[in-house]
Amino acid sequence: MKAERVPSHAPAGLPPVTLAWLTWGLLASLYFIGYFQRVAPAVMVDELMRDFSIAATMLGNLSAVYFYTYAAMQVPSGLLADAVGPRRTGTLAALVAVAGIVLFAQADSLWMATLGRGLVGASVAVAFVACMKLAGHWFPANRFATVTGVSLLIGNLGGVLAGVPLSEAVASFGWRAAMLASAGATLLLAACVWWWVRDDPGERGYASHAHPEALANTVMSPWSSLKLVVSERDTWMLFLAGGLIAAPVLTFAGLWGVPYLVQVQGLGRSHAAIYTTVMLLGFAIGGPLLGALSDRMGRRKLPYLGAALVHAGCWILFLFVDGLSAVALYSLFAIIGFSAGGIIIGFAFSREANHPGAAGTVGGVVNMAVLGFAAIQQSAIGWILDRNWRGAVVEGARIYDAAAYHVAFLWLLVSAASAVVAVLFTRETYCRLRFDSDD
């Protein structure tokens, strides 16, 4: 029997793993930049308070505007990723981020700095969602949580760079020069994303890992995609769980942890940044490891619930156990960050609970809570600190005592405990798309 001839235009096999990682990793570098910008204010607290003559509430608002605009752009980012693809949205986002960083770095007034931070948050908002969209095309479905976890690792490495290295750069060259340098790196990344990234392996002659419905998602309007996502009950449970478990880490390590350790524990700024960096490293490592564990177990709810319980328990220890040694505090911060990495399971979970053609949209909806809740907490913590301020000022910056921080940080525990409840109300997918099981 004569073998059937394969048409010359037929795609080759699946893309090489190295090509998939390189393509996806380049876009994930925008998430690295975004995370760096997200937590950078934590090591500039005194400089920002002094330069703009502001107290904790306004500083919390300045930092949080990044989160507000980031959260507001999550659904549009998902719709864009589904409609025009990760390459175009990623390139444009990087260019807008450059403009925002430059505006922030050169601001001579609070409103200009706020506008710059807002532009940065709105632009880099597409990074995580676009990475998830790209992962669905370049990697098999049973590796989605693992790959998404690696994106969290990459992002948190940006947070690590915004710890001790940025603290030293700010001390040596000033916060404005450090921000301008990051703008130059972001501009270079925009060029690289446009030159190399492709939305689907088919554009390089390989077969795609994407579900056929995802490849045919042109038949689904943005409104239909959004309607499907918001009508799914588990979308909302995972929306709440992700936001409530991530917000304490992004609030503490992203803004208020360093001033707390300096003002209450008496540490130097760079030393304090090491502690918050440990939390971010735990977050970075926890994402891929917990995601891989979930993939290997073939379960989503059980490992996510376990991570949420550990996370809440650690905040109880931090708030109510006095006299922790340095080693104990390092370990506790590492576990807090690691357990928060369970949010990666939530992204895979939400994707499986929804239509495959709306992968970008559901990623945007769930990720909106992660940043939106952090924004609310950063501002709320600042407001609580100001309400409990006893009048101490050093070189133009307000100083808050242990009692004020304790009252403020109680809300981190409330958030973590609420995440446990949200996960409890989810329904297991067993790492399979419900769309397939319903057929």
Description:
There is one protein chain. This protein has one domain (17-193, 222-437): Up-down Bundle (Growth Hormone, Chain: A). Helix content is 75%, strand content 1%. The chain is built from 20 helices and two strands. The protein has helices spanning 17-39, 45-52, 56-72, 74-83, 86-105, 110-124, 126-138, 144-161, 164-173, 175-196, 212-215, 222-230, 233-263, 269-297, 301-320, 326-340, 343-352, 359-387, 402-424, 434-437, and strands spanning 393-394, 397-398. It has a two-stranded antiparallel sheet. Helix 1 crosses helix 8 (144-161), helix 1 runs antiparallel to helix 10 and helix 13 runs antiparallel to helix 14 (269-297). It is globular and about 65 Å long. The two termini are 36 Å apart.
Question: Which key terms come to mind for this protein?
Answer:
globular; 1% strand; two-stranded antiparallel sheet; Growth Hormone, Chain: A; 439 residues; 20 helices; disordered N terminus; mainly alpha
Layout: helices, strands, pairs:
Layout: H1 17-39, H2 45-52, H3 56-72, H4 74-83, H5 86-105, H6 110-124, H7 126-138, H8 144-161, H9 164-173, H10 175-196, H11 212-215, H12 222-230, H13 233-263, H14 269-297, H15 301-320, H16 326-340, H17 343-352, H18 359-387, E1 393-394, E2 397-398, H19 402-424, H20 434-437
Antiparallel strand pairs: 1-2
